[in-house]
Specification:
Layout (H helix, E strand, L loop, with lengths): L7 E8 L11 H10 E8 L6 H6 L5 H15 L3 E4 L15 E2 L2 E3 L3 E4 L5 E4 L7 H5 L1 H27 L7 H8 L1 H20 L4 E4 L6 E5 L2 E5 L8 E5 L5 E5 H4 L17
Helix pairs in contact: 1-3
């Protein structure tokens, strides 16, 4: 993005599941997205830093540094930044209620939209019975997911040599497993029911790496996706309308690491 390119202006931006500290994290794309936007509020909806992975092995490059720098710059410039830790960055839950460099740490939040609706903002792992009740199984699933992502990198390297664009093998595999599809549906219903129980109009969450925006049992359910596979963000416009921004699709030709990245398209 050059210095004269107009930024996209949103009322609110929701990001989750960056998984900084892993090789699968598309920190370069996160940084590109953050440089292209301005917003009044930024919600970081969990699993921003992957503490599970960093405890096992350290991976952190210049793109990861750039993401942190850009978030801090947004906070200094007046963006209201709220960080809601997830299960992979649960170490930050010990600091809930504190503020660092303009970034507020909270267990959850209630966001009021421009048109007056109230939305529960929560990572969502509390409603994932595997993570909540069987951490060993969750970590085993995390290992399998890492293996799928590694296969995904090799698969797309081959596609690149053949001249084909990026395609997420790991997302496709998840969609083929009936149990995974059913689990996603149960998760969405559980979050929607929790929002309705609290008398709220909807919910914004992350956790399951499945971007979605739909009505579930009369409640607006929105999942902002992730920045490992899909590279999606949820944004609120000035009039209160929501949109899922698919950064990978918009920048399909540059999705392979190392290629020149095009300027973002006008919103």
């Amino acid at each position: 993005m050059n210095g004269t390119e107009a930024k996209r202006r949103y009322r609110t931006v929701f990001l989750s599941d960056l998984h900084l500290g892993t090789r699968g994290c598309r920190a370069d794309f996160v940084a590109q997205f953050l440089r292209s936007v301005e917003c009044e509020r930024l919600y970081l909806v969990g699993d921003i830093v992957d503490g599970w992975r960093l405890r096992k092995s350290w991976y952190w490059d210049a793109d990861h540094d750039e993401v942190i720098r850009l978030v801090l710059r947004m906070a200094r410039a007046g963006t209201d930044v709220t960080y809601i830790p997830g299960n992979h960055d649960e170490m930050f839950r010990a600091w809930l209620g504190l503020e660092f460099a303009g970034i507020k740490l909270a267990k959850e939040a209630v966001h009021r939209t421009a048109d007056g609706r109230r939305l529960l903002v929560i990572h969502g792992d509390e409603f994932d019975s595997v993570v909540r009740y069987a951490k060993f199984i969750a970590h085993l699933g995390d290992w399998a997911y890492d293996a799928a992502l590694a296969a995904n990198r090799w698969f797309n390297a081959a596609r690149r040599r053949l001249g084909y664009p990026y395609w997420s093998l790991s997302q496709w595999l998840k969609r083929q497993v009936k149990g995974a599809v059913a689990a996603i549906d149960r998760f969405e219903v559980a979050l929607a029911q929790e929002a309705r129980r609290r008398g709220l109009d909807g919910v914004v969450c992350g956790h399951i790496h499945h971007a979605e925006m739909r009505e579930v049992q009369g409640v607006l359910y929105m999942n902002d996706g992730d920045w490992v596979e899909s590279c999606t963000a949820l944004v609120e416009h000035a009039d209160g309308k929501f949109e899922l921004v698919d950064w990978a699709r918009e920048n399909r030709l540059s999705f392979f690491r190392g290629e020149t990245q095009p300027e973002p398209q006008a919103a």
